[in-house]
Amino acid sequence: MKTIKYITAEAWLTGGLAVLGILGFAFMSQLVAAPKLLFGRSLSAIAPSLFPALVLGAMAVLAIALLYSLRGSMLAKEAKDFEEGAVLRVVMLLAVMVFYAVTMAPFGFFISSALSMVAVAWIAGNRSIVQICLVSIISPIALYIISTRGLAVSLPELSSIEFLYAWVFDIINNVSNTGPAVSQEGS
User: Fold this and answer.
1) CA–CA gap between residue 16 and residue 18 (Å, rounded)
2) CA 154/CA 35 separation, integer angstroms
3) How far apart are CA 33 and CA 12, in angstroms?
4) Phi and psi (nearest 5°) for 152?
5) pTM higher than 0.85 for the full model?
6) What H or E segment, with its residue span, contains residue 42?
7) Is the four-CA dihedral 71, 74, 76, 80 of positive or negative sign?
8) Rg (CA), the chain
9) Which residues contact 51 (CB under 8 A, 6 or more apart)?
């Protein structure tokens, strides 16, 4: 029978994420406030706990799958050491996550997301300025549209950026609603 000899940092982190995902999913009612009611009906089309439940459930499933794939390294005869600079990168990524959480309200979703994505890409080793800029601009816009339009989730944003989004969506709605006029004289 093989026994677990070395539990790597990856396995500890993955196990922790799996436990957090399962606990978060199990105690969702404690994490997300109940929706506001107007005349006994919810103001939103979907439950406010849907998106967090999807994210926590996916995190738990993916962490368990990763833990399963790491079982070979936990049964190895010798442990691997950290690569040089790995601990510094982890600390820097943690600092970026804290920055993202702290700047979400004052800077808004788009600016804090773009700045955080630039920092994460740079820490991860990407040095293509064009690629970093495109991903850091397109991804937050796409996430904002999916969240606010598709999932009906409110995200914090600066007023000027919300006005820009509203103006663009107004133009799109006007263009899509103004098709060729259909005549009904022959009926």
Assistant:
1) 5
2) 13
3) 31
4) 55, 40
5) no
6) strand 41-42
7) positive
8) 23
9) 147, 151, 153
Give the span between the Cα atoms of 108 and 158, in whole angstroms: 5
Angle among Cα 103, 9, 63 to the nearest 5 degrees reads 70
Q: What are phi and psi of 75, to 5 degrees?
A: -100, 5
Q: Which residues of 86-108 are buried (b: 16+ CB within 10 A; e: fewer)?
A: eeeeeeeeeebeeebeebbeebb
pLDDT tens, position by position, 41-52: 766 677 778 888
Give the pLDDT confidence of 153-176 residue by residue, as tens digits.
Answer: 778 877 777 788 778 888 888 887
DSSP symbol at 49 = T
Any long-range contacts for 126-134 (C-beta under 8 Å, 24+ apart)? none
